[in-house]
Amino acid sequence: MGQLIDGKAIAEKIRNSIALEVRKLKKKNIQPKLGVVLVGNDMPSQTYVGKKQQAAEAAGIDFVLKKFPTSVSKNKLIAEIKNIQKKEKLSGLIIQLPLPDKLYTSEVINAVDPKIDVDCLTDANIGKLVMRTNYIFPPTPFAVIAILKELNFEVAGKNITIVGMGALVGKPLAIILSNAGASVITCNSRTKDTKEKCLMADVIVTGVGKKDLLRGDMVKPGAIVIDTGIVFENGKMFGDANREEVLSKASYFTPTPGGVGPITVALLLQNTVLCAKHNSKK
Predict the structure, then answer these.
(1) What is the CATH number of domain 30-113?
(2) Among residues 176, 165, 113, which one has the least CA distance to residue 139?
(3) Separation CA 121–CA 170 (nearest Å)
(4) pLDDT single digits (tens) 33-81
(5) 123 is catalytic
(6) Looking at the domain that runs over 139-261, which CATH code has it been given?
(7) Residue 8 designated active-site
(8) Domain boundaries in the chain?
(9) Would you say the pTM of this structure is higher than 0.70?
(10) CA 35 – CA 252 distance, rounded (Å)
């Protein structure tokens, strides 16, 4: 029987470090501030934004939320994103995803100034990630790295399979792990032998948002399984993995909720503080 990874405990360590750093910055008259752009009335998104606000304020980070209706046009949203960056002295700005399909475009994402892009989604920051010139990392992929560090797991030379190649998790995580010397296998919706690729892995990371996508017969004994997927069913949150089946095979497993999520929020705040420090030097 595998062991559950306590994401809340890992996140608390990070948040304690952040609060200490914020106090130091305030003594230098540097006040970290996080802005969030929220479009529409998606309930999970509103819940996540609320958690981000609560965590930010608890760490001493100022927080500002800008809400827009689903009907907002692309050009209007881009103009408003640029406007908030002019008016507010932000250390970090995120556009809460998912956006309505018509708005989820490169132009909208890249309206965020790369210097305060704490989600690391802009073309400029993805490029820096590839070239290893970055000083911040995408929060959810780096939550995966934080978990592996907590387990004293050295990724260099290990086989790691990523199921799901989205812009938020899979793609940037593949870059980070490859840069760290791991042998990375990626699976997308067209991959025909996902089970075989998972059975080869020392670590499996999922990021799809499909309940019971990863079953016990896809996990080799002793593998580490990190589930970043989120799906809601009858008002209840689930990850990609079948918890009972995977726990019977894996050595370690992240629960949903309480696994990757709290660490992601903590690392988003960490990025906000790092940007506040970095930008104050310029």
Answers:
(1) 3.40.50.10860
(2) 176
(3) 12
(4) 999 999 998 888 888 899 999 999 999 999 999 999 999 999 999 999 9
(5) no
(6) 3.40.50.720
(7) no
(8) 30-113, 139-261
(9) yes
(10) 35
